[in-house]
Specification:
This protein has helices spanning 17-27, 55-60, 74-86, 98-101, 106-112, 137-144, 163-186, 196-203, 205-214, 248-258, 262-266, 273-278, 280-292, 296-306, 316-320, 362-368, and strands spanning 8-12, 31-36, 65-68, 89-92, 117-122, 190-195, 231-236, 239-244, 309-312, 327-333, 336-341. By secondary structure, the chain is α/β, with parallel strands linked by helices.
Length: 370
């Protein structure tokens, strides 16, 4: 038995944020019915790289059912309403105003389905002037300031993974679990709004507070940390090593044990993390040649002996072969599988559910819900 066995989730979803939320519910045993339009949701068609299946769809839709409905038609809208009378959770990330036009706005859902936990995933808060703005991952990264602190000193960059979508899906998933616990105590559902912008603004709390309290605008430092130092890559004779020194005790060990430079440990201009951040150029002038004189294995051995955290830069090709990577196979249909990274928190017994073919359960669902 899984934690969410018996929970019925209706998903009016597309792309990444909402599907990420509901796939976590499906992994935990919930029955997730994905409502799609006749041509299928957006993420079925971004690419066809995984044996003819879109990589995004393969990642985020395992274990769900698919029903094709046209909610502009009264009969199909009526079917959805009958489904909601039995549902525990509704997740939707439709365009702003779409649910209201269907007669399923927040107030109507609360009135007609008091047991229902309804989750509206949106770009920006409905009580803000941005409420009607279209919101996609890059757009929200740009608006939230994430791009302002990401990239090189010369040029901002987006994060390579869809962090606005992923943060939003994870936030929605957590909110649903909290609401299910609350409903178990009170018997009542609730309406929850989860904003993409709110999720990334929360992630920006440290640069936000630096600016609010010190009028200091966090700069971009590529792969170097903006506010903890030395926490960055250093080139060795035959490769690059990334080190992380997060406190003064680690700084002392790096200088004395790893690099045999006790004089640096005593230098007042590097005494605290704030000093090291303020004097990063002078510090790098000392550290860069020390690492350059070592080969990668020598540098790793020294960091290991001193208890200094380290990592190596990895490509996507390296990730595919990474010794720490744990995988699971997603059935794509017709005997095909996509091997994906196993979701965090799942052990080796985890078995991914199959991807639904477009509309595969439509007839069954029409019959079940009348």
């Amino acid at each position: 038995m899984k934690a969410l066995d018996g929970i019925l989730v209706i998903a009016l979803e597309q792309a990444v944020a909402a599907p990420l939320c509901t796939v976590r519910l499906a992994d935990a045993g919930a029955r997730v019915i994905k409502i799609e339009r006749a041509e299928g949701e957006t993420a079925r068609h971004y690419d066809y790289a995984a044996h003819g299946t879109c990589t995004y769809f393969a990642w985020l839709n395992r274990g769900k059912e698919s029903a094709v409905l046209d909610l502009k038609q009264p009969d199909d809208l009526g079917l959805l309403r009958r489904m909601l009378t039995q549902a525990d959770v509704l997740v939707q990330n439709l365009a702003p105003g779409a649910m209201d036009r269907l007669g399923l706005g927040a107030d109507s859902l609360r009135r007609d389905y008091p047991q229902l936990i309804s989750v509206a995933i949106c770009g920006y808060g409905s009580d803000t002037t941005y409420a009607q703005m279209k919101a996609y991952d890059l757009l929200v990264q740009a608006e939230s300031g994430i791009c302002a602190v990401t990239g090189s000193p010369e040029e901002p960059a987006k994060v390579g993974a869809p962090v606005a979508d992923v943060a939003t899906g994870a936030n929605a998933h957590a909110a649903i679990l909290e609401a299910l616990i609350a409903r178990g105590r009170t018997g009542s559902g609730q309406h929850i709004e989860v904003s993409m912008f709110d999720g990334l603004a929360d992630w920006m709390a440290v640069p936000f507070l630096h600016f609010e309290h010190r009028a200091h605008e966090t700069a971009r430092f590529g792969m170097s940390h903006a506010t903890v130092y030395p926490y960055r890559p250093y080139d060795c004779a035959d490769g690059t090593l990334i080190i992380a020194v997060q406190n003064n005790a680690q700084w002392q060990k790096l200088c004395v044990q790893a690099l045999d430079r006790p004089d640096l440990a005593r230098a007042t201009e590097f005494a605290s993390n704030a000093d090291r951040v303020a004097n990063r150029a002078a510090l790098d002038a000392e550290l860069v040649p020390l690492f350059a004189a070592l080969n990668l294995q020598q540098a790793i051995a020294r960091c290991e002996a001193a208890g200094i955290a380290w990592a190596q830069y990895r490509s996507v090709a390296d990730l595919v072969r990474h010794p720490a990577l744990r995988r699971t196979d997603v059935p794509l249909g017709e005997g095909l599988f996509a091997s994906i990274p196993r979701p965090a928190g799942r052990d080796a017994s985890f078995a991914a559910g199959p991807l639904p073919a477009l509309g595969a359960q439509t007839d069954m669902i029409r019959e079940e819900f009348g």
